[in-house]
Amino acid sequence: MTKTVLVVGCGSIGRRHIGNLTKLGCRVTAFDPDASRARWAAGNLGCETVASLEEGLNRKPGAVWICTPPSLHAAVAVPALRRGVDCFIEKPLAHDLPSAGAIAAAAKRGRARVAVGYQLRAHPGLRWLKKTLDSGKWGRLLFLRAQLGQYLPDWRPWQDYRKSYTARRELGGGIILDGSHELDLALWLGGRAEAVYCRARRLSRLDVNVEDTAALTLDFADGALGEVHLDMVSRAYRRGLELSCERATVLWDQPTGTARVYSPKTKKWTVRRFELDYNDLYSLESAAFLKKGAEPRAASLQEGRALLAAVDAAMKSARTGRRERIKK
Which class for 124: exposed (0-12), middle (13-18), buried (19 or more C-beta within 10 A)? Predict the structure, then answer.
C-alpha cells in the first residue's frame, strides 16, 4: 500500500482527502497555489506542505490526489503521470476531451494508474444494485432515470457560491460537469451510450455563468433508454435512481440509502437499507486505489473519458437542439 501521498488542492474536497488519507496511514504532503489554504491544511490537519507542484513531485510520492478545479486537472496530472506517479483525480477527469486525451497519453507514457473519484460507486447499496442488475435476476434493463437537485448556495454553505468552480464556466463548472455523478451512474449501470439529447440552460437568478438545469436523454447501445435530470436550483435536496427492468422496478434514494424493489410476481415492494457515513465513500475509494490489485471503487481512466465524451455531446446537443452522437 502506498504510504507517501501528495494532495494538490486544499479546498473542501482536498481537506476531506487529506483527513481520510492520514487516517488510512499515509504520510501526506499538500500543495495549493493559495498559500493561506495550504497553511490551514497544515495547521488543522497536520500534513506537511510544499511551495510548488514541482517540489511536491520531487519528493517522489507514491501517488498524487488531484483536488483542483477541473480546468487544472491536466496541468497537475500530466507531469505526475509522465514521472510514473499514479493519480487519483477528483471528478471529472478533466474539463474537456483534449485535456482528457493529454492525461491518457501521459498515463500511457509513464505506465501509471489513473482513477476518477466518482465516490457513489463505492456505496454498498449501489454496488449491490449493480451486481444484482448484472446478474440478470431482474431481467433486461429497459430504462433508467437519475436525478440530482440541490440549491447551489446550500452545497458548500461555508463559502460564497459565486466563487466556487461550480458557478464558473472558465473553471470547468456547470451542472452537467459538476453534477456528473448521476451521468456516471447511468453509464455504469446502463453501459455504453451511443447518443444523447440535452436541454440545458440557466433558469434561476443565481449569479453564475453556467447552465443551472439540464435534462438529458440517453440512447444506450443495447436499446435501453436513460434520463438524467440535473439542477442546482431545487430548494430541497433530491437524489436518486429509478430502474425499470423486465422483472422488477427498482427505486434508489441516495439521502436515506434505501433501495425499494417491486416484484410483479409477488406484487409487493421489498426494502433494503444501507447505512454508512457519507465520508466513508471517499475513504473506501481511496483505500481501494492505494491497494494495487484491489477491486476498484472509483471510475477508470477509460470510463472517465467516456463520460466526458457524453458531456461533450450533451453540451453540443444543448447548443444545436438536436440529438448528438457520442464519440467512442
Answer: middle
Alpha carbon distances (Å) from 117 to 145, 239, 279: 22, 18, 13
Domain 125-277+301-325 is in which class?
alpha beta
Among residues 90, 87, 35, 37, the alpha carbon closest in space to that of 57 is found at 87
Q: Which residues, in sequence order, are CB contacts of 245 under 8 Å at separation 6+?
A: 133, 138, 139, 140, 141, 142
Q: Are 1 and 290 in contact (CB under 8 A)?
A: yes
CA neighbor of 304 nearest in space, from 143, 187, 137? 187
Q: What is the pLDDT of residue 294?
A: 87
Q: What ranges do the domains of the chain cover?
A: 4-117, 125-277+301-325
**Looking at domain 4-117, which of 3.10.310.20, 2.40.160.20, 3.40.640.10, 3.40.50.720 is its CATH number?**
3.40.50.720
pLDDT band at 41 (very low <50, low <70, confident <90, very high): very high
Per-residue confidence band for 1, with pLDDT thresholds at 50, 70 and 90: low
Average pLDDT over residues 2-23: 95
Q: Would you state the cell numbers that stand for residue 295, as one nine-digit string?
A: 477491486
The model's pLDDT over 145-169, given as tens digits with 9 standing for 90+, comes to: 999 999 999 998 888 999 998 999 9
